[in-house]
Amino acid sequence: MAENNMEKFGFTISKGRQIDYESNDRRIADYIFEREPSFRLCIECGGCSATCTTGNLTNFSLRELHILIKRGENDHIMQNLKKCMLCGKCTLVCPRGVNTRNIVVLAKQAYQKAGDYAI
Amino acid sequence: MQFDPFIIPFNIGLYFILVYVVVRSVIWFRALSRPDKLRLQRGFFGIAFAQSLKEIFLESLIHRKILKTNLRLGYMHMSLAFGWFLLIFFGTIEADIFGSRHLNAPYKAIFFRFFNPEHGRMGFEAVYSFLMDLILAIILSGLLLAIIKRFYSKVVGMKKTTNLKKTDKIALTALWLIFPSRLLAESFTSGAYGTGSFLTGTLGSWLASFLPAQQMAYPFWWLYSICLGTFFILLPVTRYMHIPTELFLIFMRNSGIRTGDKAGTYSEVQTYSCSSCGICIDACQLNFSAGIKNIQSAYLMKAIRNDDKVSDIADNCLMCGRCDQKCPVGIELTPIRMIQRRGGEAGNDFRNIYKGYFRSHQSVLADKTMTPANYNFLPDCDPEKVDVLFFAGCMTHLTPAIKKSMVKILDASGVNYSFIDEQGGVCCGRPLMLAGQDKEARELINFNSQLIWKSGAHTLVTACPICYKVFKESYYLDVEVLHHTQFIKMLIDEGKVKMNFLRKRVVYHTPCDLGRGSGVYDEPKQVLSYVSRLEKSNFEDENSLCCGGSLANLKLSSQNRKKIAIDAANELTTENPDILATACPLCKKTFSSVTETRVADISEIVAEALILNPVKITRREYISSLKELANI
């Protein structure tokens, strides 16, 4: 009850935010690192998300996906990855020259190979 | 019956290859789709047949297209192919006229000198021997070029020659040895009998002066026969399969069969028709700008033939289509690459039962089991009814100058238009297709089609060649699709817009997808020469360069892209033009970061030259305004 009342006033009780590297699965990240070294160059500036065609229409952020893949929190990435249209605007605006299109394609491939996440 | 055991290797090889080619062509024919079978039948009994014969003579024997691009390389191919053909042709006639009887077995013609050593002493016989020697000399000169090319390719004007696999090397050695061994065998025989013409006769008598010619001849005849036999038997598993296959290719192409988007007989015939001549390697910008030398089309064809892992080669390509234009055999290289991309990594599970002699069909390429995309977030839309739609496309949204210019031009023209993706629309689908994900692309295509259909427009104008190509080819729309340069040309022709002449020197860069991809070469140049001083570059039309920004390449790093862009921009701005004009937002974006010259889209130049709302002034008003000026 107390929580609900707090929300009415614009407060929430935030969930735990620590990153548990032991339970995280870095297979997808490793697969991409191996094949697209420019993945490491990302400074998470968010340029890709700002220009994104899909992000314009729905809640989709490539920056968020990059961070989650690197952390190894793979749970809801695939649902989001499937929204990407591969139009390539993110690659063009990237100040670090990250080949973002290939990362999306590789991430999809990695999911396919990992099997557990095959949908 | 003239017979000697040394002809056995040759006979085995010859009959093997004849049976093989027949069996193979039956398999190929059966795998054709029904419409293609009908096309082929119609072509076989029609005018296409005559065209094919002409083309076979010009391309397979004379190698006209190679001669056009590179004289020395062309001479090498011509002397070997046409020379060998003439040798067989005149050899058969020789055996028929001068032999013991008519209608001989093939080996009689090939080993004529062995069975008729006394032939060619005088009169017509001597003239004929002279002809045969001349043909042999021509072949040998070509062979000499080929050997030099293999070790030092610059001699024939090639920067790089193709790398070979083991069986190719054995077959190549056999091919190289065929003609020298024939020369020596004939020379020794001629030397022993005192016959032969200027080549075999002279060489023969010289050799006979210090060697036992009679005994020496026999081993060389064996060598000649073994080389021919080895070459024929290895033919189906090496690049030399192009010799018989190219004939099929020419017949099929002239019958109207095209590659399409699925692997099948035609794409397989095309892959076998590649002779690995290496012209595509020299044409490839990834080779001469970025130094990537293992992904060119010749290697793609080779990898497909050998059932190697193709995806690394297939994906690393700008799809600019330069190699398609240069290929002397006319193989549709880009469509074949697209087929390989669609097949993806999982598809290449060939069962190699007969070790390459009867490799299973390419059509086993399974569809990728990529998880389907999820585009259910696409909004429902209800566009207004208009005549003309303007679709800017994703790339144009990154180059706002083009967007603004197009809006300015459209406003000035007074057509009833709507800017369909002003608030950022949905991708056209081509980037997904280029990544081999056709099913996903289809969803976007359906969405955009609905949008266009609902608006009831009759013309769709797009500012991006990438979108233009996919709207033209993969959308089944009842509207006229125009690239904005075509649209502007139309407006000028109809007199709907008025323009000043800009005193600026402009060089035009043809975007790949607009030029080679869709065949739009003239309209952009006509528009440019209408508003500015259009100058020629060294890379016009079919020979135009790629800017390096192409969305088709997923693997290329940004550094290599930059290298390609710098090289291309330097080539185009050698004459220091005021503006480097292009018709593609992606080209504009790529070039503007690497060159000092101003890079502008055609629409920007047109918008600059546009006369807005021409104010009509009467003569009296004009004079009064002049008077006002004078008072001041």
Key attributes of the depicted protein:
heterodimer; A: 119 residues; mainly alpha; Fumarate Reductase Iron-sulfur Protein, Chain B, domain 2; 8 helices; 0% strand; B: 632 residues; 3 domains; four-stranded parallel sheet; 30 helices; 5% strand
Largest sheet of chain A: none
- What is the architecture of chain A at the second tier of CATH? Orthogonal Bundle
Helix content of chain B: 55-70%
Question: Can you say what the CATH homologous superfamily of chain A is?
Answer: Alpha-helical ferredoxin
Measured by DSSP, the beta-strand proportion of chain A falls in under 5%
The helix count of chain A comes to 8
Structural class of chain A: mainly alpha
Count helical runs of chain B: 30
- Terminal CA distance of chain B reads 116 Å
State the share of residues found in helices of chain A, binned by percent.
Answer: 40-55%
Shape of chain A: globular
Oligomer: heterodimer
- How many distinct beta strands of chain B? 8
Poorly predicted regions of chain A: none
Number of beta strands of chain A = 0
Strand content of chain B: under 5%
